[in-house]
Amino acid sequence: MFDPYFLLALLEGTVTAAILALTAVGLSLVFGVMRVVNVAHGEFLMLGAVVAWYVATFVPGPPLMTWAAALVIAPLVVGGVAALADRLVLRRLNYEAEGTIVATIGLMYILQQAVLTGFGPGARAVEPPFDWMIDTPWFGYSGYKLAVVGLAALVLGAVWLFMTRSRAGLVMRATQIDRDMARAFGINVDRVYALVFALGAGLAALAAVLLVPVQQAHYLMGHDPMLMAFTVVIIGGLGSVRGTLIAALLIGLSDGVISFYWSPLLAKILATLFVALVLVFRPQGLFGERA
Amino acid sequence: MNRALALHLIVVAALAAGIFLLPVYHATNLARIMVLAVFAMGYNLAFGYTGLLSLGHAMFFAAGMYAAGLGITLGGWPAGLALLAGPLAGGALALAAGALALRTAGVSFMIVTLMLAQAGYLTILYYTPITRGEEGFVLAQGLRRIGAFDLSQDLNRGLFALGLFTAGLLLSLALVRARFGRIMVAMRENEERSRMLGYNPFTVKLAVMGISGAYAGAAGAAYALLFGSVGASFGAIAFSILPLLWVLLGGAGTTLGPLLGAGLMFYLTDIASSYTSAHQFVVGAALLVLVLFAPRGILGALRERGLKWLP
């Protein structure tokens, strides 16, 4: 028995998974290399969406052009904010685990408040860069959403190439494995950390630019993606990028299907409980290797 | 030794004087601060003394609050019974959550408690027809009395908050000075060594979680009865972070720190919100400043600079 709505739920789930994977890979990278649990990661996504709205509103040109501009500008701006936060706060705490969690909680409130004051409490929409519809025999589906999936896959591929093939990626992985040894080999660990933190935040901002034509920009929009990204990173194994991708697909699809047939709240309750249990009984994650 | 006890009694006497002498607005604030300080004292036993950085204590507060609130509205319980249900619900839930979360440590412990509390919060929202969700519900004045003692009266409210606070304060003072308190600190400072000395870290920490959760639940039930409002926002993540902030500000691992932190933060946000609507900014900046420049908080810093006897 084929149910066309099941296909729709799967499609929606795939879009969620794509956005989630981008967000979570940034979080996972930061945790993997710096051992920092960044509670403010969702706020970087929110900030990216807000920047995208400003670009779409104030840069002249057709939607496709402004959207492309936002794809470049938002990650740069948000990455810059993140690098600044790293230099001013995280480095001074010497990346100590508990201190950085408390500090990023503080950062989360400050960013939220800054956007609330500057951008206002309302949700604002950004026009999609193009609006093709793809017709299936049962329903029409937004072509933009499919493009989001494709773009996310491209970016993730680029991140993977960057991490495994480029010199900067090599340096990052070396720092992840042994910070002191990396320093002994003359690697500027401080700069690597700032770069990784900016890269992680930039990926969240990129996810936001893709997301914002589908979901409006709002100062509290970072909350759910933050928790979802944590879910994905933990289930995939903290610091394992491959695990993160598999988990994003798993969580995105099951979220799509459960929200469709039962309730979005129930999907979230199950996901959060599942995460807690995974951390307790299988701390290396479902796909990670034992540390 | 007795200097410490004298100081605590002076603080209690000063609070009592405040309830009788202050204008109603500030006396009500004081009652609120004392109830929140009970929540913070419970948090301090776990975080300050035992080193358990939980990000999920809002769940235990909300458990006490809803146990009391729903007990009254759905169960028809008298207020006294509802108040007792608070610490029981908070403590029991903390024991269950602790049994899971304490199998992990450090960062994982924080995330597990965060996720469990988030699941609890979402569960409250899921049952919105019963819990009234984010909007919450109000306990009618007539339901908030123990015998002839009407908890919604200003003076009675202050006196009840003072009684609860005093009991919580003296209990935590006795606890941290007892043998068990030393073991708690030993767990914080060096778990491996205390294990070698023959203590079981898991049972000690689980007991602390239970006590801490009971404090939170008692505070939640008292909040519902004294101020008449029950709502899901008391179970949200932000409400888990506030006790952490209060304890960090007042001084983690000091008996009076939670009161000081809760009171200062309450008036800081109160004053800030009369100048600007950006009170979240105050919370965020306070967290950053504390963790960067004063990780020991106010009383912790005083204890380092000479007042060594401060418990």
Automatic annotation (TrEMBL), chain B:
Its main location: membrane. InterPro entries: ABC_transp_permease, LivM-like. Keywords: Cell membrane, Membrane, Transmembrane, Transmembrane helix. One of its GO terms (molecular function) is branched-chain amino acid transmembrane transporter activity. The keyword Transmembrane applies. The chain crosses the membrane at residues 83-102, 109-128, 158-176, 197-216, 222-249, 256-275, 281-302. It is a multi-pass membrane protein. This is Branched-chain amino acid ABC transporter permease. It comes from Falsigemmobacter faecalis.
